[in-house]
Amino acid sequence: MSTDTSTASSNLLTLNVALGERSYPIVIGPGLIGDGERLAASLAGRQVMVVTNDSVAEHYLERLTSSLPDSLEVRTLILPDGEVHKTFASVERIWDALLEAGFNRRSSLVALGGGVIGDMVGFAAACYQRGIDFIQVPTTLLSQVDSSVGGKTGVNHPLGKNMIGAFWQPRAVLIDTDALTTLPSRELSSGLAEVIKYGLIHDQCFLEWLEREMSGLRELNTELLARAIERSCAIKAEIVAADETEQGVRALLNLGHTFGHAIEAYMGYGRWLHGEAVAVGMVMAADLSQRLGWIDAAAVERTRRIIAAAGLPVEAPAEMSVDDFLARMKLDKKNLDSRLRLVLIRSIGAACVHDEAPLEMLKSCIAEFPRR
Ligand SMILES: NC(=O)c1ccc[n+]([C@@H]2O[C@H](COP(=O)([O-])OP(=O)(O)OC[C@H]3O[C@@H](n4cnc5c(N)ncnc54)[C@H](O)[C@@H]3O)[C@@H](O)[C@H]2O)c1
Question: Of 109, 125, 176, 194, which alpha carbon lies 20 to 30 A from 370's?
């Protein structure tokens, strides 16, 4: 299976996630939140519930719902904003609303928001009446380049992030680049961490392009952003099409995430953004890759430099000891049996999963890593 090359119609770019019967388009460009006809074309029935949070609703809910055709039965549900609300209780509210509205198996959910909303709405769709359609309308850069594509859905459990969930693919992903104009710059940088990740794991030329264009991206140059989103989604779509349920190559998308999840969990979700924690995690992964003799100091420095240029942290939290890291890294879902599995950098543009880094080497890497 593979992804189609992208096609451009007017100022929109379209990619295809090739998953047989569950294939779906990713459409990228300006104005998509107000293009209700396009959204409606992806719906199986006429009942649709748009789920968002209070911050995103303020900017985009009316724009989306008012553009939907009158023939649809449209409901909305506004959840509280924040990773702390990415819980089973929030998903129950979605099911309650669907049941109270009498929505049937041909109804659809629309996720309007960042990764938190997208993950919860996808999970709600996976379970409601044993599975209904959902459409992703991601509004953060992180959700546009990562969480809205690939079908990983779920919620956090008090004992671990994203521990409860399902694989459930959307019917379509509509990425409105205009939404980035209201995104706080810290959130933009968080999304850039995932964009940089694609270059590091899969595409050296893309990384070089990012090194050249980083300031334009941070200044919200829409053409550059659309290109970065398109390339990121194309790489993610290719990897997901090859390994939908993460039996192999999909794990490479987790570069920096084992270290990063440890930081997020230790610091308390929300204090460090996901992309910020992943950013430091990628530098730590590069450091460990150098210790294993795979890359040289210049490659580690290059990784550090592009991450810093994106406005992201490159130092770990001062309060985290080696044991704090290791205790949380051991909870990672990638681990099999008792072995710690890490995604590391083989060379810039190529990653691998490795479970044989000597523990003493890993401990030195964490202990000697710069702190902020
Ligand atoms: N499913 C996956 O494959 C996958 C991959 C990566 C991350 N994730 C998950 O995604 C979540 C993080 O996603 P996120 O970074 O989008 O966080 P988020 O959904 O919390 O959004 C970040 C903040 O930006 C606000 N916001 C969203 N769009 C906005 C806009 N256009 N203008 C102004 N404000 C806006 C949100 O209300 C929120 O306050 C985590 O829960 C993570 O686990 C999932």
Answer: 194
Q: Is 117 annotated as a binding residue?
A: yes
Q: Of residues 171, 261, 304, 354, which has the active-site annotation? A: 261
Q: Is 197 annotated as a binding residue?
A: no
Q: Which amino acid would we find at residue 96?
A: D
Question: How far, in Å, is the centroid of ligand 1 from the Cα of 364?
Answer: 33
- pLDDT of 156-194, one tens digit each? 988 778 889 999 999 999 999 999 999 999 999 999 999
* Mean predicted lDDT score pLDDT of the chain: 94
Distance between CA 166 and CA 253 in Å, rounded?
17
What percent of the chain shows pLDDT beyond 70?
Answer: 95
Contact assessment for residue 195 and residue 279, using Cβ atoms and an 8 Å cutoff: no
Which residues, in sequence order, are CB contacts of 223 under 8 Å at separation 6+? none
| Angle (CA) 241 247 248, round 5° | 75
For this structure, is 330 an active site residue? no
The set of protein residues with a Cβ atom below 6 angstroms from ligand 1 is: 53, 55-56, 59, 81, 83, 86, 113-117, 119, 139-140, 142-143, 146-147, 150, 152, 162, 179, 182-183, 187, 190, 274
* Strands 73-79 vs 47-53: parallel, antiparallel or unpaired: parallel
Is residue 236 annotated as a catalytic residue, yes or no?
A: yes
Which domains does the chain carry? 7-182 (3.40.50.1970), 185-368 (1.20.1090.10)
pLDDT number for residue 2: 41
